[in-house]
Design goal:
Elements (H helix, E strand, L loop, with lengths): L12 E4 L14 H12 L3 E5 L4 H7 L8 E4 L4 E6 L2 E8 L4 H14 L3 E4 L8 E4 L8 H9 L4 E3 L11 E7 L3 H11 L4 E6 L6 E7 L5 H11 L7 E5 L5 H6 L2 E5 L6 H4 L1 E3 L6 H10 L4
Parallel strand pairs: 1-2, 1-12, 2-3, 7-8, 12-13, 13-14
Antiparallel strand pairs: 3-4, 4-5, 6-7, 6-9, 9-11, 10-11
Helix pairs in contact: 1-9, 3-5
Length: about 290
């Protein structure tokens, strides 16, 4: 277990993942953690959620009592301010160049796995989907298309993609390392990260972004806009797509039930169903973090 770097005491900005970190996979953000956001505000700490969700998905499901300053969404593809009324103006966003889209599409078709192609922010919940060719469907692939049936369209040869912000390929957990290696060989310049399927089907999702898009890069961009740096920030996460954020901040923690090997690499907090943010704020108040 790594100890926390940097000085103890209140950070200037706290960044936390959402699903599986402060929001249990089967439940809601606790009242204690919602109060913890307000306690952070009283201490002058900027509060940021850095999520893999799209802006649409987060706005649909966020707790109504959430007191937040900024949202980094789609794993760093974009960010916005946040008010009691919901999202404010976009602070930054990214999308692929035409050449990158062409390259990523060719690679995705070559791998023959099920994949999604998302529009850029703020409409990054809208997407095209391509069924796997010769491989079984993952349950997460089917579940997502069912949940987002109103905003997804099947991919067909010759369709004009238009601006795009993200590709996402699904595969079983044990097959994904090979899928990633093959994709990376075909598109070495693009940004790749894993995330665990949010549908509990033990599949992995390969998230593909323009170069230098990640939660860590998004945090760095937001910090620069606010005249902060990594020493001013503390992060909290639980999954593979949090890793570069956890490495960017000088103080980093993960939930006790985080995806391996994160709990052995970072200091831990209680799991998502045991109010980890409230626990963290308690420790900060006692000057123990």
């Amino acid at each position: 277990m790594n100890s926390l770097d940097g000085p103890k005491g209140w950070p200037k900005m706290l960044l936390t993942d959402f699903d599986g970190t402060i929001k249990p996979n089967r439940g809601e953000v606790s009242a204690a953690d919602l109060r913890a956001f307000k306690r952070l505000k009283k201490r002058g700490v900027l509060r940021v959620i850095a999520t893999g969700r799209s802006l649409y998905s987060f706005e649909r499901d966020y707790p109504k009592g959430l007191d937040l300053d900024y949202l980094i969404f789609s794993s760093g593809l974009g960010a916005c301010s946040w008010t009691s009324q919901g999202p404010g103006p976009l602070l930054f966003s990214r999308q692929f160049t035409e050449l990158e889209i062409s390259s990523a599409l060719k690679a995705s078709l070559t791998l023959k796995r099920g994949f999604f192609v998302f529009e850029p922010p703020p409409n990054c919940h809208r997407y095209l989907y391509k069924d796997p060719d010769g491989y079984p469907f993952t349950q997460g692939y089917l579940s997502r298309n069912k949940l987002y049936s109103q905003v997804c369209t099947p991919f067909s040869p010759g369709i004009k993609l238009g601006p795009r912000g993200q590709f996402l390929i699904t595969a079983p957990w044990d097959e994904m390392p090979q899928v990633r290696a093959e994709f990376e060989k075909l598109c070495p310049s693009l940004s790749l990260t894993y995330s665990s399927s949010p549908y509990g089907d033990r599949s992995l999702w390969l998230e593909i972004f323009p170069p230098e898009v990640s939660k860590g890069c998004g945090a760095a961009c937001l910090a620069k806009l606010l005249n902060l740096n990594s020493f001013d920030c503390l992060s909290l996460g639980n999954d593979f797509n949090d890793l570069d954020l956890l490495k960017w901040t000088k103080r980093s923690l993960v939930t006790l039930d985080a995806t391996e090997p994160l709990p052995s690499e970072f200091q831990t907090v209680p799991p998502s169903d045991d109010s980890p943010l409230s626990w963290l704020v308690d420790k900060l108040e006692k000057f123990e973090l």
